[in-house]
Design a protein that fits this description.
The chain is an alpha/beta fold. It folds into three domains: 194 residues, Tetrapyrrole methylase, N-terminal domain (Cobalt-precorrin-4 Transmethylase, domain 1), CATH 3.40.1010; 104 residues, Methyltransferase, Cobalt-precorrin-4 Transmethylase, Domain 2; 194 residues, Rossmann fold, CATH 3.40.50. The strands form four sheets. A seven-stranded mixed sheet has the order 13-12-11-14-15-19-16, sandwiched between helices. Helix 14 links the parallel strand 11 and strand 12. Helix 1 packs antiparallel against helix 4 and helix 16 runs parallel beside helix 17. The chain is elongated and about 95 Å long.
């Protein structure tokens, strides 16, 4: 008879003699205090009674006494296929019946453990974990199972060990927070796992930075691409914590944030070796972080700067095309503004000259109005905005960017336009409700030879505007701006598209 069938036969005799599977495993376990007490160290074998085991085993041998090498199939929590519970042990069913306690530890090792967690580790018969973690307990009498090599192989060895007795596994921080906890649950199920978490590195980082983190985004770049971080940063969150690794370093994260050309600025914090004697917390700009190196491990915290100081000098600004990030935007809609590339095209269509009087209808953050005012310093701009929040942003942006030759007009077009002086240039920042009425008032108010430029996202708004001006006999042309910006992708670059925009120009005959 093969060794496999001998093993099955032996277990049949154990069941027939009244010995439970759990006890036979317990008797073969290491002689630890927890292993010797089956009431404390074992769990029910998935609800299978001895009679059920006998039936399974006899079925494997065959009703007519014919031998078979097929092993009984037993499912455990998290094992969703019809495979033996742990194929690492040939010829055995290897049902995990002992408890796996997962203890989170910090960089300060045993000192930082709670009394309860320390008692769990002190009473362990088997200690598992990385070499770094196990070295904290060199003098512990427990057998040590090192986490090394491929994680699947380690879990196989861990599963084999659990059939003989309970195990205490040491893990970093909170094992259920971007840690090994998820893999353990998938492999062994909830019933046999007990977690004793430590403070996570992210919690420590926000504590050191003294920043509330209930609204923070948490992104792990440890062994992962930066696509998720890119998506998160485009939403302009108030705070972001990034778990780095030797490849996705703080320098690389900082460069990504700069390459994204975000509308919000961020303070860059690097928290290294948290909880240890070598702990270091540093604050800097993203630009500075690109030139620095940092100790590992580290956690990066990106803090959004909602209140920005004024630009030091108007001389430092470009003549045309102010960077998007220099404009304050709506906190809940940070991307709601005319982007630099589209703004420059619209300004070119306006064919500006110094000394012109202009309207900016639906001014939003004031980006177009401010550019017009700077390009025509002897002219004047009326920035028309219906919302109080928008009017406040326009005033703040004009103040920060040192622009004074304009006035914010709060009100809803077209009614609010009737009291304004007749312009030589008009910019309309979008379509929407009342577009025909707004364009009708604009066409009457615009001085002969004047130019109107409008940006539309919807093709229906474009065709409506085209019809209005063509019926009035105005020359009309338009362009679709379908642009993309470069963003990092791993070690390379990809293109991220901006929303397509139609830019229409209509010239009033002289």
């Amino acid at each position: 008879m093969s060794s496999t069938m001998a093993t099955i036969s032996n277990h049949c005799r154990e069941v027939a003699s009244g010995a439970s599977i759990a006890r036979s495993m317990s008797e073969r376990s290491d002689a630890s205090p927890l292993a010797r007490d089956p009431n404390k160290s074992t769990r029910r074998t998935s609800g299978l009674a001895a009679s059920t085991w006998t039936k399974l085993l006899s079925t494997s041998i065959g009703a007519n006494g014919a031998t078979s090498t097929t092993l009984p199939i037993v499912r455990r929590p998290g094992n969703r296929d019809n495979t033996p519970a742990d194929p690492a042990l040939p010829g055995a069913y290897n049902i995990v019946v002992h408890e796996l306690a997962v203890v989170g530890i910090g960089a300060d090792g045993p000192v930082g453990l709670s009394r309860q967690a320390r008692a769990v580790v002190d009473g362990a018969g088997v200690l598992a974990g990385s070499r770094t973690h196990l070295d904290w307990w060199r003098d512990h009498p427990a057998h040590q199972l090192e986490l090394s090599g491929e994680i699947g192989s380690f879990l196989d060895r861990l599963g084999e060990t659990l059939t003989r007795g309970p195990v205490v596994l040491l893990a970093s921080g909170d094992p259920l927070f971007f840690g090994i906890g998820r893999l353990l649950l998938e492999r062994f199920g909830r019933e046999r796992l007990v977690f004793h978490p430590h403070i996570s590195s992210v919690q420590l980082a926000f504590s050191r930075v003294k920043l509330p983190w209930q609204q923070a985004e948490i992104v792990s770049a440890h062994g992962r691409s930066l696509i998720r971080l890119t998506e998160v940063m485009r939403s302009h969150p108030v705070a972001v914590a990034v778990l780095s690794d030797p490849e996705n370093t703080p320098q690389r994260i900082a460069q990504l944030v700069l390459d994204l050309q975000l509308l919000s600025s961020y303070q860059f914090w690097v928290c290294s070796a948290l909880g240890s004697e070598a702990e270091k917390v540093e604050s800097m700009s993203c630009l500075e972080a690109c030139t620095r190196s940092f100790a590992e491990p580290n956690v990066i915290v990106l803090e959004r700067l909602d209140v920005q100081a004024g630009h030091e000098s108007a001389k430092d600004l470009p003549l045309l095309g102010i960077p998007d990030e220099l404009f304050l935007t709506y906190p809940d809609q940070p991307g709601l503004m005319t982007k630099l590339e589209v703004r420059v095209l619209a300004l070119a269509y306006l064919q500006l000259a110094d000394g012109l009087l202009c309207w900016d209808i639906g001014s939003g953050t004031g980006s177009v109005a401010i550019e017009i005012a700077r390009l025509s310093p002897a002219g004047f701009v009326y920035a028309v905005e219906k919302t109080a929040a928008g009017c406040g942003l326009i005033v703040q942006n004009a103040r920060r960017l040192r622009v004074a030759n304009f006035q914010v007009v709060r009100g809803k077009a077209p009614g609010v336009l009737n009291d304004l002086p007749r312009p030589q240039r008009i910019f309309v920042g979008g379509g929407g409700e009342g577009l025909v009425e707004i364009l009708s008032v604009c066409s009457q108010a615009l001085q002969p030879g004047g130019i109107l430029v409008a940006n539309f996202a919807a093709i229906e708004s474009l065709t409506t505007a085209q019809r209005v001006f063509q019926e009035a006999g105005w020359p009309v042309r338009y362009t679709q701006a379908q642009l993309s910006r470069s963003v990092p992708l791993g070690t390379g670059t990809r293109l991220a598209p901006l929303n397509p925009v139609f830019i229409l120009q209509a010239i009033k005959p002289k």
